[in-house]
Amino acid sequence: RANNFGPDPVKHLTDNKWVSLENSLVVGEVPTEDACEHGRPVGSVAFTGFAQSDPKVGIMMSTFSKSRGKMDGTGPWHRPKSYPAINGVVNLTEVTFARFTPNTCNMSSYVFTNNPLSPDAMHPFQVLKTGLQAVDNDRMVFFHPPNPAWIVQEDCVDMDCDGPKHSIIRDLDGHLLQTDHIGSLIPRAEIRFDSSRLPIALLAGGQTEFLQRGISRGYPNNVNASTGGCEWKAAWNGYQCGNLNHQMLIIENMDADTEVRRVSPLAVYGGNTGGGKYID
């Protein structure tokens, strides 16, 4: 996991920040007689944020932020201390993942996971020429949902901070998902989503019928849950999508009061082409 920081998003500064990992081997487990006795390496839970009994993870999705994370020992190292940066991407090329399988120690392991302590944004992962050896499909990824405790006035007000549930892992050549086409892994984003999350402007202009019918009938394919070409994976808490070129869309409030006046909730309506009625 990398902590890549700067420039200041409050000043609307951007840079093409990136993290790259190439020609590497990431191993989840090494079978030994005393593997269950030792578990994960011992470390301070206050610093690592993980207990010995927690799942082992190959790579945690990187956090691109305004400033350094808590790498100074003042808290879990993967907890951001500032706003997320505007741009950022992680590229994995010719990385092999090995031995991520259910084991006899009753301890889970996952190739990827998003950052459960990063509430505001998760920048995309892109993988190319990925190799898999003894990797159980259920252990490919686990997407942490947003923490309900974030729904407070001093944090994300009446929203759960959407960062974790908009993570994207893009398989650029099909090697990760073992297909012959581009694909992606995305989390379950439809949790805690109902008509109260829709802007009033979207409901205006002939949309009152939608409000009366309810979201399940008005927009049956709300958020990314039922996007055509995606398969639900309960073990991932997410979806495997094929032939879909998912991208990260950034909507930035350029006003001077960007920190004190929120413009959310925002809704992106996909229209009714082919009866899709997608909304996020």
Question: What would you note in describing this structure?
Answer:
The chain is mainly β. Helix content is 8%, strand content 25%. Mean pLDDT is 77; it is low at 210-220.
The main pleated sheet reads as: 8 strands, mixed
Poorly predicted regions: 210-220
Overall SS class: mainly beta
The percentage of residues in β strands lies in 25-35%
Q: Rg from C-alpha positions?
A: 20 Å
Determine the N-to-C terminus distance.
Answer: 29 Å
The averaged pLDDT comes out at: 77
Share of helical residues? under 10%
* Elements, N to C (H/E): EEHHEEEEEEEEEHHHEEEE
Q: What is the general shape?
A: globular
Number of H- or I-type helical stretches? 5
Find the count of extended strands (DSSP E, 2+ residues). Answer: 15
Reconstruct the topology from this structure:
Elements: E1 3-5, E2 18-27, H1 35-38, H2 45-48, E3 56-60, E4 63-65, E5 89-100, E6 109-113, E7 125-128, E8 131-135, E9 141-142, E10 169-171, E11 183-187, H3 200-203, H4 208-213, H5 215-218, E12 221-222, E13 230-233, E14 238-242, E15 278-279
Give structural attributes.
8-stranded mixed β-sheet, 3-stranded parallel β-sheet, mainly beta, 280 residues
